[in-house]
Design goal:
Number of helices: 5
Number of domains: 1
Strand order of the largest sheet: 2-1-3-4
Radius of gyration: 13 Å
CATH topology: Glutaredoxin
CATH superfamily: Glutaredoxin
CATH class: Alpha Beta
Helix content: 40-55%
Order of helices and strands: HEHEHEEHH
C-alpha cells in the first residue's frame, strides 16, 4: 500500500520540525508499551530535548509511519530528519556509547 501524500506530509513536518523525534505508543510522560518506555528512558537519561507523537491517537500516522520508514515496528526514533531505529537499535547505540555522539551532533546542527 502506498503512503498517502497527506499523511507523508504530516510525518515530514513532524520529523523536520524536531531535532529528536519519537513516534511511539503513548506519550513521553505516559508510555503505553515497554519498547516506547525504553526509548523515553534512554533519551531522558541524556537530558536532551525531544518530542513525541502518540500513534495510538492517530491510525493514519500509526500505519503511515511504518510505510514512511519501511520499518514494521513502533517506536521509531528520528534525529535531524533521519530514521535511526526502534527500541533495540536505541539500546545498542546507548550501550556502545554511539548514541551520545549522535545526539550531540543532531542537537548542534
Amino acid at each position: 500500500m502506498a503512503l498517502d501524500p497527506a499523511v507523508k506530509e504530516r510525518i515530514d513536518k513532524l520529523v523536520a520540525d524536531n531535532k529528536v523525534f519519537v513516534f511511539m505508543k503513548g506519550t513521553k510522560l505516559m508510555p503505553q508499551c515497554g519498547f516506547s518506555n525504553n526509548v523515553v528512558q534512554i533519551l531522558n537519561s541524556f537530558g536532551v530535548p525531544f518530542e513525541t507523537f502518540d500513534v495510538l491517537s492517530d491510525p493514519e500516522i500509526r500505519q503511515g509511519i511504518k510505510e514512511y520508514s519501511n520499518w514494521p515496528t513502533i517506536p521509531q526514533v528520528y534525529m535531524n530528519g533521519e530514521f535511526v531505529g526502534g527500541s533495540d537499535i536505541m539500546i545498542e547505540l546507548y550501550q556502545s556509547d554511539q548514541l551520545k555522539e549522535m545526539l550531540t551532533v543532531a542537537l548542534a546542527s
